[in-house]
Structure formats: structure tokens, C-alpha cells
Write a structure and sequence with these properties.
With 470 residues, the chain is of the alpha/beta class. Helix content is 43%, strand content 15%.
């Protein structure tokens, strides 16, 4: 079933929760603009020449106030934009309403079902009869995934007249994807090939999705160029220095209204996000334990005074379990949750929904779900009357249960990287510079994003003499 949509007074398509929140959204957008100097500088520097004029951009990124500034920066540079969120719970409804009314087609609201979520992505890719996007801004790779699955299904039909079979997989989300593709093929059996043929490229901002794309490049299945903005220097260094990688601390506090001080918190994961999360929890007063797979990361944690144990060592003792191993499957299982103390808090700080065994929890015989407030549920096991509190249904907690896009430290850097990548792909679309591969954001564009911040922050660069430069 297609997603029913509405039209604004300017005839722009949309599906948002409440258009009456648009004025409130506009007020917050104006406040955020002052804290996002790189994007505002992009408008003043590039806006007059309209470098994205004629470009159709589909975005699949958390529909927050900060994302609204990104969208309006793209339109200020001449692009036409259609947008959806990359998470079922991350949309700020007042931001979606303001953009839908004023700037771009938006299909996003907080609390989408998985079916609605994928229908929103499909709608964001639909530019009307015969219309497809030129560029994609992705965060998590779901829009990219839908296109690749669609092309694969169309080729299977062309070769053997086989329609996609949702029953061929036990993965719920893939079942939904295959259903959408199958339904669409009833009226257009070449839709995703049309997208593939026109698409100039994608900019992607999530580590797990980038790794998946590198894998597709290696096996020859990547359909178009991708610029990896996740690993740009300006994003990783600036966010880490500011301590603003998604720690989930704000999501925990907002969702549960509990004091973290004195609690035993287990961080399950690896790498920089784990380090940032442990720092945030320690600062809040928690006793933090880390589970690790990497000996170097484990040694670093020990040198910083953090215990490194296995989940099985502490599953019955800890108060908070935060998964930072984004994209990994089955980090916390139903068996783990059965062994946890009553009212232990379980959350996922990674961008995907398979790290915590939610299907196992939801289908456990006799389990009761008690909703305290949106995205905060207590699941009670029938034999023990003991329960665990799961945040954001096992999905991204900092945006599901709080507003996890700090305007300056996170959004201004990351989103300006997206703009630079989109400009690069569009301006080089006819030169053959970018093949069907994954590329790092060029260094000079990374430096450009940094320089666009400096004036707002009161900095003046020292210029090298020729002797020094030599």
C-alpha cells in the first residue's frame, strides 16, 4: 500500500504529523542557523552562483532542526529537495512541519512504524512520473540499500520472471523492503534501473553503512559513486574534541529521569564511540565497565581506569547497558535480558536496530510491555515478574529519546561535509572523475569546511611566508 500524502498551500507533497507546529519549527531553525556557521557560509559563498541548480536531491537523514538548516542550505544553492528520516524515532515534528511548509517535500514524523519508515524512503525517491533523483544524502544507507535491492529484483524478473518474495527472508525489515519493491513492480518494472542510470552519486555519513559500501565496491555490486563523509577529519576530530559523539547520556536522562551517578553502566562496543560514551557516563558519576573485542582499545580503557570484562561477567549486576557496537547483530540477546536485575536499562547508541534482540523480547511467551512514556518501555517476564527497561525500542537512543544533534559540534561540521560532497559530485558529473567506488572526502574540501567556521569563531590564520611554506 502506497504512503498517503498531503499537499501544502504551495502544492508541495508532504507527510508530517502536525503542520500547525511549523511556526515553532521556524523559530528554532533561526536559532540553530546562528550556531551552524559553515552551512550559513556555504549559502553566502556559493548561493549567488546557484551551483546546484537543476539538481534533484533525495535526503534520508534524521529530520531534526539542524537537518532543516542543511535542507535550506541545499535549496539556497539551487537544488530541489525531497526528504525522509533515517530513523523511526528521530524526527522533530516541528522541524518537519516548517520544512514541509517552506522549503521541501518531507515524509517524516516521530514514531513511524517500520512499514511507514520504508514507505517514506520510497516516497522521497519518487519525483513523479518518470522522475528520479540526481543525488542522495544518506545516513545509514537505507535509501542506497532500497535502490540496490530494487535493481537486483528487477534483474531477477527480467531473467526469470521472478517477483521478489518477502517470505524468502526472516529479516523483518528486508521483508518490508521486498514487499515495497514487489508492489511497485506491478506498475513499473524498471523504476530502480532508471534511478541507477541517472544517479550521479551519494554522500554517506555512517560508519557501518560505509563499511557495507566498501564491501559492495569489493564484490563489484556498487551501482554509483559514493563520497564517505563519515571519516572526514573535520567531523571525527571536531566531534571527538568537543565530546559530542553520540554518547546517549542525554537520551538516558530524558527517557528515564534517573540519576546516573552511582549506577553501574556497561558499554558494549568498540572504538571511538565507546570511548566517548564511557567518558560521558563517568562524568555523570557512573561506574563504567567496557566489553571489548580489540586488545588495543581494551588496553587504552584499562589505562584510563575503566574495567574491561565480558558481558557474561556483569550481566546480573549492572544497572545500565549501552550498546555502541553500531550495526553489529545480537550484542544483547533475550538470554542476557532474562538474567539482568529488575529494571535494568537497555539501550542502543548505534544507528541500527539489530544490536538488541527485540524480536526475541517481543515474542517471548507471556512477556508484558508497559509503556511509561513514548520510547520508554518496561518488559516484564511472566515467571519472575522482573523486567528490563528498553529505550527507543532498541534503536538510536540519543535521537530517539532526546535531541542528539548539537548544532555546532556535530551538525555544522557533518552537514557542511555533505554539502561539499554533493557539490563535488554534481560539478564533476560529466568528467568521469568519480567511478562506481567509495571515495574519501577530498582533503581540500575538508579544509574548506574548517575554514568556513573560523570567522564565526573569531579566528585569524597565520599565513606562511614562501620560505616557511618551502
Amino acid at each position: 500500500m502506497a504512503l498517503p500524502v498531503e499537499r501544502t498551500a504551495s502544492r508541495r507533497e508532504c507527510k508530517v504529523k502536525d503542520m500547525l507546529q511549523a511556526d515553532f519549527g521556524r523559530l528554532e531553525i533561526e536559532l540553530a542557523e546562528d550556531q551552524m556557521p559553515a552551512l550559513m557560509s556555504c549559502r553566502s559563498v556559493f548561493g549567488p552562483s546557484q551551483p546546484l541548480k537543476g539538481a534533484r536531491i533525495t535526503g534520508s537523514v534524521h529530520m531534526t532542526i539542524q537537518t532543516a538548516v542543511l535542507i535550506e542550505s541545499l535549496t539556497a544553492l539551487g537544488a530541489e529537495v525531497r526528504w525522509c528520516s533515517c530513523s523511526t524515532f528521530s524526527t522533530q515534528d516541528h522541524a518537519a512541519a516548517a520544512i514541509a511548509r517552506d522549503s521541501a517535500a518531507v515524509f517524516a514524523w516521530k514514531g513511524e512504524t517500520p512499514q511507514e519508515y520504508w514507505r517514506c524512503i520510497e516516497r522521497a525517491l519518487d519525483w513523479g512520473p518518470g522522475g528520479v533523483p540526481d543525488l542522495i544524502i544518506d545516513d545509514g544507507g537505507d535509501a542506497t540499500l532500497l535502490i540496490h535491492e530494487g535493481v537486483k529484483a528487477e534483474e531477477a524478473y527480467e531473467n526469470a520472471r521472478n517477483l521478489p518474495d518477502p517470505a524468502s527472508t526472516d529479516n523483518l525489515e528486508l521483508q518490508i523492503v521486498l514487499t515495497i519493491i514487489r508492489d511497485g513492480m506491478k506498475t513499473d518494472r524498471t523504476r530502480y534501473h532508471k534511478i541507477k542510470e541517472r544517479l550521479v552519486g551519494v554522500s554517506e555519513a555512517t560508519a557501518t553503512a560505509v563499511e557495507r559500501l566498501y564491501g559492495m565496491q569489493a564484490n563489484g555490486t556498487l551501482l554509483f559513486p559514493v563520497i564517505n563523509v563519515n571519516d572526514s577529519v573535520i567531523k571525527t576530530k571536531f566531534q571527538n574534541l568537543c565530546g559530542c559523539r553520540p554518547s546517549g547520556h542525554d537520551g538516558l536522562m530524558t527517557a528515564t529521569d534517573v540519576e546516573i551517578a552511582g549506577k553501574v553502566a556497561v558499554v558494549c562496543g568498540f572504538g571511538d564511540v565507546t570511548k566517548d560514551c564511557t567518558a560521558a557516563l563517568k562524568k555523570a558519576g557512573a561506574c563504567v565497565i567496557v566489553t571489548e573485542i580489540d586488545p588495543i582499545q581494551a588496553l587504552q580503557a584499562l589505562m584510563e581506569g575503566i574495567l574491561v570484562l565480558t558481558l557474561e561477567d556483569v550481566v546480573s549486576e549492572a544497572d545500565i547497558f549501552a550498546v555502541t557496537a553500531g550495526g553489529s547483530k545480537g550484542i544483547i540477546t533475550i538470554d542476557h535480558m532474562r538474567k539482568m536485575k529488575n529494571n535494568a536499562i537497555v539501550c542502543n547508541i548505534g544507528p541500527f536496530n539489530n544490536a538488541i534482540d527485540m524480536p526475541g523480547l517481543e515474542t517471548f511467551p507471556g512477556v508484558k510491555r508497559i509503556t511509561f512514556n513514548p520510547q520508554t518501555d518496561r518488559w516484564v517476564f511472566p515467571d519472575t515478574e522482573s523486567g528490563v527497561i528498553v529505550l527507543a525500542e532498541g534503536r538510536l537512543v540519543n535521537l530517539g529519546c532526546a535531541t542528539g544533534h548539537p548544532s555546532l559540534a556535530t551538525a555544522s561540521c557533518s552537514f557542511a561535509n555533505h554539502v561539499m560532497a554533493q557539490l563535488e559530485l554534481w560539478m564533476e558529473r560529466d568528467t568521469g572523475k568519480y567511478e562506481k567506488k567509495v571515495y574519501a572526502l577530498p582533503k581540500h574540501l575538508d579544509e574548506k569546511v574548517a575554514s568556513l567556521h573560523l570567522g564565526k569563531l573569531g579566528a585569524k590564520l597565520t599565513k606562511l611566508s614562501k620560505e616557511h611554506a618551502d
